[in-house]
Automatic annotation (TrEMBL):
Part of the intact protein present: 835 to 1088 of 1097
The EAL domain, residue ranges: 1-254
Protein localization: Cell membrane
Keywords: Cell membrane, Membrane, Transmembrane, Transmembrane helix
Protein name: EAL domain-containing protein
Protein origin, superkingdom: Bacteria
Main subcellular localisation: membrane
Length: 254
C-alpha cells in the first residue's frame, strides 16, 4: 500500500505533528490539560488522521518508533510549558498495544524523565481496554511500573472492550475515560444514561477519577455534571488543535 511505505519516510521527514484536545474540569469548566492526538501532514494528501494510519502503523511495527516520538514530543511540551506559565497542565498520550507489550517503553520513559525534569504526574498514558485485556497479567505489571514512576494511567474507550469489572481492581489506575459511544446518546437512550451514571459511581467507589470523551452538547455536559463526572473532553469545549493554538488558548485562560 502507498501509505505503508510512505509512513516510515514520514517519520524521518518529520511529517507527524501532535494536535492537542483540551480537557476541562466539569464543575468549574477550567482547563486542566490535553490529550495528544497525532496527525500526518502528507505532502499530497494533506492532513491525514490517525484512523487512517494508526492501524497500518500497528501492523507494520512503525507504531513503536512513532509511539516513542509521541512520548518524546509530549515530554518536551510539558517541559516547555513549565517555562511559560503553563506548568499546571497535564498531557495525556495514547499507547498502542504493541508499546504496552514490548520491552522498550519503561526504558524510554526512564530516560525521558531523567533528562527532562518534568513532574511525572503531569504525564498521563492512555491504554485502551482492549489493549490492556490482551494480556491482563502483563498489563497489570506494566501499569504498576508506570504508577511506581509517578506517571498517571488512564483506561481509554472504557466500556467498549471485553471488560471485566474485576480488572478495575487488578490494575493500578488513576482514571477511566468513558467512551464517546456511551456519551453520544445519554440524553435519548435510557440504557446509556444508566450505564454512564453507574460507571461513574463504580469508578468513584474504587477511588478512580472519570473523564467523559466526545462531549458535544451542553445537555450532555449537564447530565455528566449531575452524575459527578470529574472531567470532560469534546467538541463542546474544543476540537483537537495545533500546539500554538492550544498554548494561546491556555495562556488566555490564566
Ligand atoms: O481524532 P482522532 O481522529 O485524533 O484519533 C483517532 C484515534 O487515533 C483515537 O482512538 C486515538 O486513540 C488514536 N491515536 C491518536 N494519536 C495516537 C498516538 O499517538 N498513538 C496511538 N497509539 N494512537 C493514537
Ligand atoms: O483516543 P481516542 O479514541 O479517545 O481519541 C479521541 C478521538 O475522539 C479522536 O479521534 C478525536 O478527534 C475524537 N473526538 C474528540 N472529541 C470528539 C467529539 O466531541 N465528538 C466526536 N465525534 N469525536 C470526538
Ligand atoms: Mn485516547
Ligand atoms: Na477513546
Amino acid at each position: 500500500l502507498l501509505l505503508e511505505s510512505r509512513l516510515w519516510q514520514a517519520l524521518e521527514q518529520q511529517e507527524f505533528e501532535l494536535y492537542l484536545q483540551p480537557q476541562v474540569d466539569l464543575p468549574s469548566g477550567a482547563l486542566i490539560g490535553a490529550e495528544a492526538l497525532v496527525r500526518w501532514h502528507h505532502p499530497e494528501l494533506g492532513t491525514v488522521g490517525p484512523d487512517r494510519f494508526i492501524p497500518i502503523a500497528e501492523e507494520s511495527g512503525l507504531i513503536l518508533p512513532l509511539g516513542e516520538w509521541a512520548l518524546r514530543r509530549a515530554v518536551a511540551l510539558l517541559e516547555r510549558w513549565r517555562g511559560i506559565g503553563l506548568g499546571h497542565l497535564r498531557l495525556a498520550v495514547n499507547l498502542s498495544a504493541r508499546q504496552c507489550h514490548g520491552d522498550a517503553l519503561l526504558g524510554q520513559l526512564d530516560e525521558l524523565l531523567a533528562t527532562s525534569g518534568i513532574d511525572p504526574a503531569l504525564l498521563e498514558l492512555e491504554i485502551t481496554e482492549t489493549a490492556a485485556m490482551q494480556d491482563p497479567e502483563l498489563s497489570r505489571a506494566l501499569l504498576q511500573q508506570l504508577r511506581a514512576r509517578g506517571i498517571r494511567v488512564a483506561i481509554d474507550d472504557f466500556g467498549t472492550g471485553y471488560s471485566s469489572l474485576s480488572y478495575l481492581k487488578l490494575f493500578e489506575l488513576d482514571r477511566i475515560k468513558i467512551d464517546r459511544g456511551f456519551v453520544k446518546d445519554i440524553e435519548t437512550d435510557p440504557d446509556d444514561a444508566v450505564i454512564v451514571g453507574a460507571t461513574i459511581g463504580l469508578a468513584h467507589s474504587l477511588g478512580l477519577g472519570v473523564i467523559a470523551e466526545g462531549v458535544e452538547t451542553a445537555a450532555q455536559a449537564e447530565f455528566l455534571r449531575g452524575k459527578l463526572c470529574d472531567e470532560a473532553q469534546g467538541y463542546l469545549f474544543a476540537r483537537p488543535m495545533c500546539v500554538d493554538e492550544f498554548e494561546r488558548t491556555a495562556s488566555a485562560a490564566l
